[in-house]
Recover the amino acids of this structure.
């Protein structure tokens, strides 16, 4: 898994509560990404990061915020969870210096908002 | 990034070659073709990529047509463990690494 750890792997939360998902890498890749995957939609990019404290919005960023205070950690926060944010969330990394250009994905976090 | 078109599903017999096509007729000169696959509910896994030359690695071969408007991923001896969703993605190099736009992919089912 190219040294990517997502936590938690499963979470059930109530509507309106804040939720933070964590992506941790040990490979010193420059770029980190958060995707969500829903039936019928495939994987969609939420937010991504070019480096520490350098982030940008993806295709479906509404309702989500991110932070990257260290190279190895990329946090995804749902400020007030809604049922439409029930999904599987994948973190990805790429851009290891001197490495190849492909992306590596974590195993996913299954989030259920009830 | 250019859009891609893939058949929604394909079948293959175990031990035979699986040939997965992808159309990317609007590809630009600086865009690469990447293939990933997703087994069951795991995270996507990189397979191979290329610009204009055919490529081969331990997992697969990638054949890109001369006009670069289409490509074929070849799994030379498919096994049951190759059953997965296969995604063909076109992206520019540079800082867009990993900023992948996924379509629906092709569901490959390998039969015994």
């Amino acid at each position: 898994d190219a040294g990517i750890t997502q936590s938690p792997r499963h979470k059930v939360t109530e509507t309106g509560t804040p939720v933070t998902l964590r992506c941790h890498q040990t490979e010193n890749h420059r770029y980190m990404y958060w995707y969500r995957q829903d039936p019928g939609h495939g994987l969609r990019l939420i937010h991504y990061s070019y480096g520490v404290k350098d982030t940008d919005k993806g295709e479906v960023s509404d309702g989500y915020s991110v932070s990257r205070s260290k190279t190895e950690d990329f946090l995804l926060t749902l400020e007030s969870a809604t049922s439409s944010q029930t999904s599987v969330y994948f973190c990805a990394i790429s851009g290891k210096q001197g490495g190849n250009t492909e992306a590596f994905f974590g195993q996913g976090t299954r989030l259920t908002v009830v | 990034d250019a859009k891609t078109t893939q058949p929604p599903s394909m079948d293959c017999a175990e031990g035979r070659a699986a040939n997965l096509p992808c159309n990317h007729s609007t590809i630009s000169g600086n865009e690469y073709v990447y293939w990933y696959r997703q087994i069951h509910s795991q995270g996507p896994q990189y397979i191979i990529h290329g610009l204009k030359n055919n490529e081969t690695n331990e997992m697969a071969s990638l054949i890109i047509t001369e006009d670069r408007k289409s490509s074929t991923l070849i799994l030379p001896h498919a096994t049951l463990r190759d059953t997965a969703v296969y995604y063909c993605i076109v992206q520019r190099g540079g800082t867009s690494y990993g900023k992948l736009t996924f379509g629906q992919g092709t569901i490959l089912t390998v039969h015994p």
The radius of gyration of chain B is 13 Å. Chain B touches chain A through 22 residues (CB under 8 Å).
